[in-house]
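Database export, one record per block. Field names are fixed; values are copied verbatim from the stored entry.
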Amino acid sequence: MSRFLSADEADYQALQDKLLRRSSVQETVAGGDADPEVETGSSHRLSAGSGELGALSLGAGPGHGTSKSPSLHRRNSDDAQSVPVSPQLRADAGRRSGMPDEAMASAVLHGGRSRTAGMLPATELGVRKLGTWDGVFMPVTLNVLGIILFLRFGFILGQAGLLGALFLLVASYAIDTLTVLSLNAISTNGQVRGGGAYYLISRSLGPEFGGSIGLIFFFGQAFNTSMNVLGFVESLVGVLGLEKGSVSMLPEGTWFLYLYGSVVLWICTLVCLFGSSLFTRATLILAVVMSLSVISIPLSSILVRPFEDAHHDVYYTGWSLVTLSENLWPRFTSGAAGSSTAPNKETWFSVFGVLFPAVCGILAGASMSGDLRKPSKSIPKGTNWSLVFTFTVYVMCFIIMASTIPRESLYLNVGIVSDVSRWPIVIVSGELASCAFSALMGVMACAKVLQAIARDDLLPQLLPFAQGTARSDIPTYAVLFTAAFCQLVLLLDSINMIAQLVTMTTLLTFGVLSAATFALKAGGAPSFRPSFRYWNIWTAGAGTLVSFLAMLLTDASTACICIAVTAFLFIWIQVVSPPKPWGDVSHNVTYHFVRKYLLRLDERKGHVKYWRPQILLLANHPDRERNLIMFCNSLKKGALYVLGHVLKGDFHECLPELRQSHLAWLKLVDVSRIKSFVDVVIARDEREGARNLILSCGLGGMRPNIIVLGFPSALEDVPLPPTTPPPRELESVPELSDDAAPTSAPIRTATYVGILEDALALNKALAVAYNFSRMTLPSQDSVYNKSERYIDLWPIQIANPTSSAEPTWDTYTMVLQLGTILSFTGTWRHHKLRVSVFVEHPDELASESARVRTLLDNLRIPASLRVFCLSNGSVPRYDAIVLGKRALDADVADVLRSDPWWRQICEMRRAQEQAHQAASQPRAEPMDGAVRRSSSQSGGVRRRPNPRQFGVSLPDEHLAYHHNNIRLGLAHPRSREDSDDEVDGLDMESDGGFDELENELASLAVDWDPKYLIRARRRQAEETKRLLGQTNTSSSYGSLSSSQRTLTPAMVQSSADPPADGTKADTPKRSPRSSTVNSDLRSPPVMRRARGRAPTLSFNDLPDRAQYLILNELIRLNSGPSTSVVLTALPAPAPGTSTTEEESLAYLHQLRQLYGGGPPVLGVHATTLTMTMTL
């Protein structure tokens, strides 16, 4: 038994480290007691500046490593290659690079261009310095209090009024608040690493959503950076411009402004490239200047006296109720200073698009997550307090401006805030500081997001941007690319226009962030347990809804473009990105809905009109059964498809083999691009394993209803008369290892037949595929597919196994249904569908064709119809066996040579021929012949002859042979019109039943023992009378009928829909001329003989082997090389056939005689009706 241990601090620390790596690191155990090896995603060289370290990490050989050293694996490929790293080499490299051992190990495991998603770089494992104040509150506050406050608040207030501005401000902050709640929920649900909003979304929703929204967030931050650069230039020109500035120094004009913006942009870029130390110092200076400028606004409103400056359109009244009342209500105009909608008037939505960028900097704290000491605590606290503070500042500024500045100045002067200030230079410095800070933050944030996306290896085109410097991990290439992109955006030269783009991209990011938490909560993920208490699923749903609604209301066309670009990026990443080990919210949501609707998909409530084939393919070897696997994938028609495989052996010994086999079959699914599940089980033999698969496969209403098996290859390979061309070369598919199906002995025939019996006993439909190795799949040869190809259906009705006189049509309809479904699938849709039936006599052709044509039209089956006649000389085997007009071919003669029935027929025919020859010579007639002839010619009742007076006796094994006979019949033949004096059936319950049977056999000159049949029929009659009134249950699965009637719409409807009152529908009475063998105990086939003529046979009188041989030739002659596959009925084995190898082998030989030598055949045996004509 296991022992319990007490854990110390080191054990808990190791557990936490392991849990942090679990989402992105695969642990493998080498040997029995070996420690887990950490797999990471870096098998390439390290970044610039660490080439020596990269050489050490990749060049460490076996001599330097130990069995417990970490190994490097490429997670994005199937064939992982491990590279052991020596601890001594790691320590030496760490000392040379000036890094501690922990940081050195991180650089080895996570550094370089191909870092696996979610891995912390070396700098992140170092000392994290920032807390809530300096890491979250200050960046968010400074990012929110941007250029919009100084250059566009006057424009917003002049258009919307104080009440309108406050309403838009509350709406903007409501969106921010709902998004922040979702941000807090994600950040308190686990360890947050570098990457900001991209990291949060990608690790919550998966790589597709994360990558697409991350790129949209990158573009939004780049737009915001360009907007702040333009704001910086506008403020600078307002002070130093030759025309507008108080100090005329800088020339003005479009291209001069563009030049100034470019200089400012590249200065910010150089600051970012010089490292975090310079960036931190610049940030502190800008924060101080920004704080002073904000404080000067309320102080100026108190200290500055009312004044006017008409030259600069400045009118200042100080605190005034009149001014407040004038600025209270909205008044939208066109052509105001700073407007971008001229000559159209401004609207609520256009003003909202200008205001919202002033509140969209709430994700700045999340962008600093990689530098925070405790991101899970700092991000919620710092962001919430920053929202409260900035909202208070904005409300204060709106009230001060609405109470002191008339509306005319708000319309004409966008820089009114600095013009009415007591210290204009402080306001201008604040404007420049806010613009510079936002530009610096924007460039660095964009570069970090692009670096994170590149290191996650989502798009191969972005891999160069995964670079980072050796010491500070500054993304040099990403910074330069961001600056170049912002340089292009500056060409727009409109703050309002760029603000609209910032609004769209930011709202899209906010909406998806809220949707991520909503999906996690709605999916019921057990691991989603945020410690933030004020979030719930309703706030997440509201945040998602209002964000997307605000997008559409602000600018529907731009919103649609942003959503379309996001969808394009989503699809692109889904196609080219390798699988990631982060987890995907789609799996969680899919699991939730699948479980929910599987419970609703009750198999007891299914209806036949919604039936579809749900296939369990019992596969043995993927290479030999490749055609069958692909064929079943087409046949499933969007339904369930399971590849089942049985490993034979001891459970514990086969466990390693089970894992390898399961992975190999999954690889087959990926390589073949089929939509299938894989189920591999361990059992003592194949029958037990197949039984377990049938019983346990699927859930609820998603359970297999068709069990498909390939015919045993050992029997299928027996040469038969070739009638089809050799198969074409199969399309090259990568060969799979033997792990999918290790080499094993061929399956025993009794086991194989036992699987068939078990499937039928469990009320599953059964399909056996014969000769599929010779099939040419439609997609494998385009030239071959240009020729006319066919799917041939040969429906043959199965007789009812119960005592009911009404035959079953289950197999008949399933053959039609499966053929129709196959012809609708993509790879088989160019094939033509043909239905082939046959009759025995020419006078039945027209009526049979009309009946079947009506049936196909009512069932909406787009197929051509062929009706064949057996007795017109087109089927040589029929002429030889039934009519005796020609000799049998050598193969059929070998098959029937040992058949007692055929020997008896041959003896009777030779005796008849001798009698005919003797009759042509005049001689005295024997007394007993005269008596027999007079008896046959008289119209009275025949006398019972002496059973021992004939020279030929019928042995007991002959009768037993017919007793267990599985008989095959015509497809919808109409019963022949027999004369009144012919015996069409045997009524054992009538008084003269036994005499009629004896007289009929006596007329065939057969010496027989009437006790063999009569006693058995008496016992059956007595048993039937005893069980009268009880449900008749038969152990047989049904046999192929010896005579059928055409399936009518009424039959299909009545079979599919039982009476509404729940009572059993009355079974229509059959014609006396139509007989179906419904009992296990069957009478011998009765050969009819007209009076004075030789005994004759019909197809329905033949035993199963003779019928199989005739049908085999009929199918081979009429389904030639142009036929890709044949679907027909499968004669089911009688219960107990699998008890002996001899009977099982005999049954399989009979199937080979029925299906062999022709095109690929799928034999089907159904147990339920699968088609209906009702709506």
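Remark 1: The domain at 611-718+735-776+787-872+1102-1165 is CATH 3.40.50.12370 (Rossmann fold).
Remark 2: The mean pLDDT is 74.
End of record.
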